[in-house]
Design a protein that fits this description.
alpha+beta, 4-stranded mixed β-sheet, 4-stranded antiparallel β-sheet, 12 helices, globular
């Protein structure tokens, strides 16, 4: 159920102020320390950011997809690492449970996910399994009232602090996704271990690491849905997550464009602000046009999803266009700033590195192209 207009406007203004007054001043500190301050995480909990997409009956804000995308756009006005702190609770780490969990599973986990008491994570990718997500090798073998889970997951966001993993594992011999099931795996089960966080190009403060499962006894009651339904659940989760990420891409692009406009107005060359030079104006115009197009696509698709329409194609189109768009905007921003854009003091080079990941996670641009083509042909054009 959507919030009433006045309440939602207040939420947007609160998030906007939080980004402007609390998060943006800390961007350099987070980059240097590769860590989000604990006081900021607590403020995120108090604002309800960990429960944006979780129903009010479980303590969340219960936002619609359209509302969530508008909030995600505001959060994109600062380094994406801040959003990643609670992003898995809002998206891929919780939505399998929201979509396919039993009443008992939801009652047990969702209130603590919504409050931020526990952090969730989504474990699909493996050392040899990335875009071919139906080829998971992690296995879960039924043994009475438990499944024996063994395997390794790679590049798992928030693995270093997650309390609960949604894990995709093979339970049958059927090929591809038909043999994959989904499980809720608490971090404290014997046999679960977390690797050292990876050193990454960007998004410092948002950690990814391996998660290892060594004959972990997962209660059968922790399976999400039926055996063999895991791949279908994962794809539904990613459909939703792609829209959220697309909205974040729009927000980062808006931030970059605003920074470029301010810098171009101050920086003088050949006796006048560079904003008066037509080739600078052309880069700003291209960036603004593409950003507006991405925003319209994201919001229109989110509204269609809220109406219950099939948006598999449109979600992939939004992810493809928005993630590629923000990469181009970031590249132009470095060009507009010139040498200053390559220097860490201005933050442009940091955002340039940060946005590169958007074209890879939750489905690469190439995977989105395949989905778009497949769905277009299925629809007949």
């Amino acid at each position: 159920m959507a919030l009433d207009a006045e309440t939602f406007d207040q939420l947007i203004e609160t998030v906007r102020r939080f980004v402007r007054e609390r998060l943006r001043p800390l961007e350099g500190e987070v980059e240097a320390a590769d860590e989000i301050p604990s006081a900021i995480v607590q403020e995120m909990r108090e604002l309800g950011l960990f429960g944006l997409s979780i129903a009010e009956e479980f303590g969340g804000l219960g936002l619609t997809m359209l509302e969530e995308c508008r909030v995600a756009t505001e959060l994109g006005h600062t380094t994406p690492a801040f959003r990643s702190t609670f992003g898995t609770n809002v998206g891929i780490g919780s939505q399998g449970l929201v979509m396919a969990g039993s009443a008992e599973q939801k009652a047990h986990w969702l209130p603590r996910i919504a409050s931020g008491e526990i952090v969730t994570s989504f474990a699909l990718t493996e050392p040899d399994v990335g875009s071919d997500s139906g080829a998971v090798k992690t296995r879960a073998v039924r043994d009475g009232d438990v499944y024996r889970l063994s395997g390794t997951k790679r590049y798992i966001t928030n693995a270093d602090k997650a309390d609960l993993f949604t894990v995709m594992a093979r339970t049958g011999d059927e090929p591809g996704g038909r043999g994959v099931s989904a499980f809720l795996v608490p971090r404290d089960l014997a046999g679960v271990s977390i690797g050292e966080p990876e050193k990454k190009m960007g998004q410092k403060g948002a950690k990814v690491a391996d998660v290892n499962f060594d004959d972990v006894a997962v209660p059968a009651a922790n399976r999400l849905g039926t055996e063999g339904e895991g791949f279908k659940i994962a794809m539904r989760v990613l459909d939703r997550g792609r829209l959220h990420i697309s909205a974040v891409c729009v927000g980062v692009a808006e931030r970059l464009i605003a920074d470029c406009v301010a810098y171009a107005g101050d920086r003088r060359q050949f006796g006048k602000p560079i904003a008066e030079h037509q080739l600078i104006q052309a880069m700003i115009a291209d960036s603004k046009t593409e950003c507006l197009a991405a925003r319209a696509l994201v919001l229109e698709t989110a509204a269609a999803k809220d109406r219950g329409e099939d948006v598999v194609l449109e979600s992939s189109a939004a992810k493809l266009f928005a993630s590629e768009m923000v990469g181009r905007v970031a590249d132009r921003a470095v060009q507009i700033y010139g040498g200053a854009g390559y220097i860490a003091d201005y933050g442009i080079e940091r955002l340039y590195r940060d946005v590169r990941l958007f074209r890879i996670y939750e489905g690469t641009s190439q995977i989105q192209q395949l989905i778009i083509a497949r769905e277009t042909m299925k629809r007949g054009g």
